[in-house]
Design a protein that fits this description.
The complex is a heterodimer of chains A (92) and B (403). Chain A has helices spanning 40-46, 55-66, 72-84, and strands at residues 9-12, 17-21, 26-31, 34-37, 88-91. Chain A is α+β, with helices and mostly antiparallel strands and 92 residues long. In chain A, strands 2-3-4 form a 3-stranded antiparallel beta sheet, covered by helices on one side. A two-stranded antiparallel ribbon of chain A has the order 1-5. Helix content of chain B is 33%, strand content 11%. The chains are: A alpha+beta (92), B alpha/beta (403).
């Protein structure tokens, strides 16, 4: 997987749904006949992938929300993994 | 989560993505809710998992009953919803059921033959919030599709596939494999690609219901299976992640059983047309399992308190070799229905496991299939088509033992 442009805009894959499930105390990703329970950081990233915010915006927003710096490589690695699984797609 | 087993017309376990409840603890919520809205179906498939005595079950639930089941299950945490049957489109209140389910936050899968899915209905279902449609085909050719479903439906299904694309649904094609179509896997995958499918489920028949009656005519040979797997591997390598192809291996060819339903009473709750609540779609056959009914019991009570749903939770029910097996936390002893059908005792190890003293029942069935395939060269004979006029009680043991 080549590096993802900071300006590219990740969005949920076609036909997928992301929602918060109180019964599981987690974000879950729903797709045809399947479900993935996301951990806290995956949920925080995925819930910001709205096709409007760029990868750079998402990293900045997460760093602000969690009072952290240097999250870029981790977020990019997760987004790349999620694209490989077709959980996310990129908008130019 | 690439190894996602489907729930389709041929009966398979819910997603491996659902974690099983740890043994001995309070069960988690019924994350996967399957509503079998009706046993009515225009098809007569030889591999249908519906109970062979389906024509003798009680009246279908009303719309209000189904809506109440949705609300009660969602309150417990159910989130994946399968609407199946029979043919769910036979219910004219399907759109109302979908709308309520969507409002409650379910992800809604319609599992259908496509028969009855007009453009007006697919539009209404889209507006109601249906998330996805799984369309079944019996084969890639009109002749075999129509023969195996005992109907003339192939062209109709092809039109429905086009509608599914037009209405921007993720397209999931499900084809149940067996001796008479498994050699067509290459053509089936090519058909799926032409139709623009994103997911293809090649689900080898599992032997329950009508499929159990037809097992001696449906079980493929090992050589057929290996060729089909090779064709599937080559196809996957060519299309990459543009299409997801799930190949559900027929468990008769395995030496360890499937982790059926991630353990009964762990994540899966099915409700039959007459309101019978079941820990697996085939559980109606299990003797002495007093299945509760949603007409008379709330879903919470059914899931957490009923004897039937607690019967196979944990490991206390297990016999040897399961009871002391280091793999019991992985496969939960396999499938209770298969243990019952083949050995006559639902507490036995699933005889697919080669540690089971009954494993010979499986290997002998496979050996008979080898001989039959060699002898008949694919000729189709003696299939029992699902039919409401024929009501057949469940027979356990080996249907041809001593024959």
């Amino acid at each position: 997987m080549s590096a993802i442009e900071a300006a590219s805009k990740p969005v949920l894959g076609h036909g997928l749904r992301l929602q918060w499930e109180p019964a599981q105390d987690a974000h879950v990703l729903l797709f045809p006949e399947g479900m993935v329970k996301l951990n806290g950081s995956a949920g925080a990233i995925m819930s910001r992938c709205d096709g409007v915010r760029s990868l750079g915006d998402i990293v900045a927003d997460l760093e602000l929300a969690y009072g952290a710096t240097g999250l870029g490589p981790d977020v990019e690695a997760f987004v790349a993994l999620a694209i490989g699984k077709r959980w996310l797609e990129l908008r130019a | 989560m690439s190894d996602l087993p489907p729930v389709g017309h041929g009966l398979a376990a819910p997603s491996a993505a659902f974690a099983a409840a740890a043994p001995g603890r309070t069960p988690g919520p019924p994350l996967w809710l399957l509503l079998e809205l009706t046993y009515r179906c225009p098809l007569h498939c030889v591999f249908c998992y519906n109970p062979t005595e389906f024509a003798n079950t009680g009246a279908e639930l009303s719309t209000d009953d189904w809506l109440r089941v949705l609300r009660e299950a969602r309150a417990l945490g159910a989130v994946q919803l399968g609407l199946s049957g029979g043919e769910p489109l036979a219910r004219d209140d399907l759109e109302s059921i979908v709308a309520e389910a969507r409002a409650l936050g379910f992800y809604i899968n319609l599992i259908t033959s496509g028969i009855g899915l007009s453009e007006a209905r697919i539009g209404a279902l889209k507006r109601a919030g249906l998330d996805h449609i799984q369309l079944s085909f019996q084969d890639s050719s009109r002749e075999m599709n129509d023969f195996l479903s005992s109907t003339r439906t192939f062209e109709l299904k092809a039109q429905v596939a086009a509608l599914i694309r037009q209405y921007d649904y993720p397209m999931v094609l499900n084809v149940v494999l067996h001796r008479h179509n498994i050699d067509h896997v290459g053509e089936i995958l090519a058909m799926a690609e032409r139709m623009g499918a994103q997911y293809v489920e090649l689900a080898n028949t599992q032997y329950y219901g009508w499929a159990w009656l037809n097992r001696e005519q449906l079980l493929p040979s090992r050589a057929q299976l290996e060729r089909a797997e090779e064709v599937t591997r080559a196809f996957r390598a060519r299309v990459g992640n543009r299409m997801q192809v799930y190949f559900v291996v027929p468990d008769y060819f395995e030496v360890r059983p499937k982790a059926c339903m991630s353990g009964l009473g762990s994540v899966f709750l099915a409700v039959a047309p007459d309101g019978t609540a079941m820990p697996c779609h085939a559980a109606r056959m299990l003797p002495g399992l007093a299945l509760p009914n949603v007409r008379t019991s709330p879903v919470r009570e059914i899931w957490y308190e009923s004897t039937a749903f607690n019967r196979f939770r944990g490991q206390g029910w297990m016999k040897e070799p399961c009871a002391s097996c280091p793999e019991r936390d992985t496969d939960f002893g396999g499938c209770r229905c298969q243990a019952y059908l083949l050995t006559g005792d639902a507490d036995n190890a699933d005889p697919v496991c080669d540690l089971s003293p009954h494993h010979h029942l499986v290997s002998e069935a496979v050996a008979r299939a080898e001989r039959a395939v060699a002898a008949s060269a694919g000729q189709v004979q003696k299939l029992k088509f699902r039919d409401h006029r024929i009501s057949i009680p469940v027979v356990t043991g080996d249907p041809v033992a001593g024959a």
